[in-house]
Amino acid sequence: MAFKPAVWPRKLRSTKWYSGTSRDSIYHRGWLKNQGYPDDLFDGRPVIGILNTWSDLTPCNGHLRELAEKVKAGVWESGGFPVEVPVFSVSENTFRPTAMMFRNLAALSIEEQIRGQPIDGTVLLVGCDKTTPSLLMAAASTDLPTIVVTGGPMLNGWFQGKAVGAGTHLWQFSELVKAGKMTQEAFLKAESAVTRSSGTCNTMGTSSTMASMAEALGMALSGNAAIPAVDSRRRTIAQLSGRRIVQMVKDDLKPSDIMTRSAFENAIRTNGAIGGSTNAVIHLLALAGRVGIDLTLDDWDRCGRDVATIVNLLPSGQYLMEEFYYAGGLPVVLKSLGKAGLLHRDEITASGSSIWNEVKDVINYNPDVILSIEKAITQQGGIAVVKGNLAPQGAIIKPSAASKKLLTHRGRAVVFEDIDDYKRRINDDALDIDKNCVMVLKNCGPKGYPGMPEVGNMGLPPKLLQQGITDMVRISDARMSGTAYGTVVLHTAPEAATGGPIAVVRNGDMIELDVPNRRLQLDISDTELATRLVQWQPQHEHALSGYAWLHQQHVQGADTGADFDFLNGCRGAAVARDSH
Ligand code: FES
Fold this sequence. Notes:
Layout: H1 15-18, H2 23-33, E1 47-52, H3 64-77, E2 81-86, H4 103-115, E3 121-126, H5 131-142, E4 146-150, E5 157-159, E6 162-164, H6 168-178, H7 184-194, H8 206-217, H9 232-251, H10 255-258, H11 261-274, H12 279-291, H13 297-304, H14 321-327, H15 330-339, H16 355-359, E7 384-388, E8 391-397, E9 408-416, H17 419-425, E10 438-441, H18 462-465, E11 473-476, E12 488-493, E13 510-514, E14 519-522, H19 526-535, H20 546-554
Parallel strand pairs: 1-2, 1-3, 3-4, 9-10, 10-11, 11-12
Antiparallel strand pairs: 5-6, 7-8, 8-12, 9-13, 13-14
Helix pairs in contact: 3-9, 4-5, 5-12, 6-7, 8-11, 11-12, 11-13, 11-15
This protein binds FE2/S2 (inorganic) cluster.
FE2/S2 (inorganic) cluster is lined by residues 60, 92-93, 128-129, 166, 200-201, 205, 207.
C-alpha cells in the first residue's frame, strides 16, 4: 500500500471551467447558476459527477435516483459540489440483440462524458449486469478518483411457500414446464413472485458478482455488495460514499492506484469463493486492459484453482443475497481468503485503508450461508480454463455450477450452426440426440451474433428432459447468464465467426472434455482439422453501417475481454483540444 495522498488544496480540473474572470468562465458558471447555485460553490471545491444508470427500462436500477440524492447529501456534507449525470444504461433484460453488444458502447460514451465535462471525481451508480463493468471501464480509462455504489439486490422472491431467485428459478421453471412437471399457468404466476422488489437479481448472478468484484478490487466501500436495495443501510452507504469521494479527490486516489494486478488477483479469488458468474471473466479481462494490466485467462485458472467456493448461494448453492447480507456479506468472504493466505492484504481500497484492515474484525453470523473451507461447496471453485484443439485460446467452465460426473466426459457432437438453428430443431423429437451427446452451438461469439449473447446454457431437448435428464455437456462460443448452471463450456476462442476450430465441428465428431486436466479436444486428426479449417467459409454477413459495423470491426476475442481494439489502455482525463 504505497499510496501517498496528494497535497491539498490544489487546482482541480474543474477550475478550467469555473475559475477566473474570463468570458468563458463567466459563461460556464452563469449557465450552471440557472439551477440556483450560489457564488461560493465555484471556489475550487471538488466537482463530483454522480454517473447514474437509472432508467425505466433498466428496472434493476429503477431506484437509483433515490440513491443519487443520498450520494449528493454526502458530497455536500464533505464540501464537494455534486452533479448528477445520466449515462448510457445497458439493461440486461431489455436490450436486443444482447446487452453485451452495448457494454463497450456505454463505456466509450461514458468515458467521453467524464473527459469532456468539468468533473473531478465520479460516483458510479450501477447495478444491472453490464452497468457495473461499463462504468468501471470508463472510469479506468479516464482515471479520475472513483467510487462504486451498486443498487443492491432485490429481496428474496417467494413462490408457493419457497424462496425463489431471479433468473435461476425462471430457468428451472421453464425446464419443468417443458418436462411436463409444471403448468404454464403456475409459470405465469411465478412471474410476479420471483422479482418482487426494487434491486438487482438476488442470486449470485452477474450483477451480484460484479458488485462483489468492485468491492474485492477495492473500488467500493466495504460491505457494499450485498446490502439489499430496499434496506435503509443501502441509502446509508450511498451517503457515506458521497462523503468519501470528496476526500478521494483531495487525496487524488485514482482507479490506477486501487486496481493493481494484486487487486485483480484478489477479485479472481473472490469470484471462486462466491461461486461467481462466468461473465466476471470477460469483464475483468476488459477492465484490466483499460488500466493497462496484462491479465490473461491463465491468470484466472492459476489464481482460482485452489479457491474453495464457500458462499452457499444460487446458482451454485442454496441461498440468496438477502441471507448473504445477514450473514455478514462479502467482508466475511474476504476475511476467509485472507486467513487462507489467498488475499493480498495490503491492497488499498476506496476507503483509503487496506482491504485487510476493512475485513479483519468481521463476524460470520450464519455458517450455513458462508461456509467454512472444510464444508465448502467445492474445494476447486473458481473458473476452470480448458484448452485444446477445439479451443486453442481457451474456453471456460464454472465447475461449481456443473455436474461433477460430467466434468470428465467424451461424447458425440450434436451441432447447431447458430442460435436460430438451435431454436428450429431443439424441440423436434426426431433430433438424433441422447444424454451422452455433447451439444455444440456456433456463431454466438463477440463478432458472430454479434454481441455474444447468454445462450451458452442452451436448454436440453424436451424429450430428454421428460426422461429426467437435467444436465448435459454443452459447448459454445457464447456466454451464459450468471444465474444459470450446468456443465457448460463457454467463451470458446477463437470464435466460430472468425474461423476458430469450433466452426468446423460436425455432427457425429467425438469431443472430449477433461476439466481436471484442463483439456477440450475434438477427436479428429490434425490433418483433418487443418483441411476443414482451410475449407471453412464465413457463414454470416457483416453489418455494413452503424454501431453493429463498428462492433464487428473492432471487438476483440472473448479470451481478452471482448473490448474494442481502439479502447485498450488508459487515456486519462485531459481534454485534447479546448475550444473555449
Ligand atoms: Fe438486471 Fe439481473 S437482469 S440485475
